[in-house]
Amino acid sequence: MSIDLEKLREFTYEQYMPKISRVYGRPGVQILRNVMGMLRRIYEHIEPDLISDSLIVFRLINEDTPPVYLSQPERVTFLEHLVQEYSPSTRSGTSAIQILSNGDLLLWKNVTIDLAKLSADAIVYLYRSRQDYFVIQGDEEKIFNPSRVHASIFAISTFQELVDALEDYKRRSIRTSTCQNFANVWHGGQGNHRLFFVNKPEDIMRKSLTQYLQNVLREAHVQPEVNVDESHPVDIQVTWANRIALIEIKWMGDSITPTGNFTSYRDARANEGAEQLAEYLDAKRTWSPVHEVIGYLVVIDARRRGITPTSTNIDRTNGFWYADKEVTYNPEYHKIRPDFKEPVRMFAEPICRPD
Amino acid sequence: MQNSLGNVASTEIQLFAYLSCLLSLYKGQQASAWGYDFAITKLSYPYSPELDQAIDVLVSNGCLKLSNEYITVTEFGKEEYTFLKSLFQFSTREDFIDGACSSLLALPVGAIRNALYQETDIKGAVALAQSRLLLTESGVDALYEQFGALSTSIGVEVDDLMVPAVVWLSYLLKVQNLND
Description:
The complex is a heterodimer. Chain A is an alpha/beta fold.
């Protein structure tokens, strides 16, 4: 990948860090470090996806005295208490948190703040609608977030173990189609009822999981479509120093082709994936003798009961009929092969009509 | 790193040591001045055998504690570190290491790794499944060009090297996102 130097210059000039450095100087960058560190700690206790309006987090550059135009705040000494003081049920409107030099926080709820005025002498972070900003002299500068799953770049959890990451992906991204990449698998778009996949959704699923794992896994190199032998690519390969994980993705449910044809996959498809993965493991071991090789089958499950190609909605009973119905595998590779982990089924919920 | 990640893997120490070395290039230093080389191997990248040995020594003498393949700094290690960074010969290196490790404040470690893997030198060798030295003449030339472009907007004399580190890594991620 060759770098376009002119584009790099333009990109650099527009980034929030160089801007903060230009506008607020060295003290500003020092405060920025403190704000970013605190944001990570705040988001360990507060899920940004549950912030319905806006959250402002700021630290004054030269002092701790709260802005005089704000009302009396709540003081939060222990971050764990923030969950109680800033619970989802009490969040309405914009909330603001001031970071004090001793690490305590001041909290205002349902407040109106002139960000241009505040950012004149403070480093100001703003979160709104799944987007991070730093407000620099009144201008809201977007922060690039490489994750399509996490609402804030400061709220990306990391995992040492792949199995933990897959479990998080299942709950965070697939269950309610939160991942912006994964959301494109649905026929009729994101706002539809999630009854059918688009034709051949595999590429979208692979891209979604690849990008997610690249952001959350520690120590591992995540690559899509890596050959296990001369000609067969596994969906995702995860490489550590001394081991490799092969991830094969299959989906169950129904997809609609552009011509309106219906493709349905059920348990047999998952079993095909298991057999395929077992073959990949054997092939990979031949080509990578110095690595321990482990296989993971990920099954994206969007089975719906009783739908036809002309269905436009579904009730809750039929929509969630398969939510807890596990796949029957035969053979059960995960029980007879030590290098084959238990398959992970991820149920993607529909949007059901009110019963 | 321990403040951001808790315990740290030796491969992560290697990664951030490499990024620290790159930041020394941003400041106009020669790659050879860093004192040890980095390479891509079939097992790990970037990788320095000298750094690997040093980690072993520090674990042996009690500066680092190794538990389940993850490393933490002991109190004795912190005291040693405080002493070493006061020495003149290491004073500038501290800026590079701090700038590299502080990028964790802005980006998750997986994204930092992913960004570094897009760096031309590493990406080319991985694509060809080659084991070879990094920061050879051609690889360094490309980096000097990129850092020259960065410094046009940021300045070479920037106090905090976290700034160019985060901007450069973010750009590599953005380009990768566009290409995917």
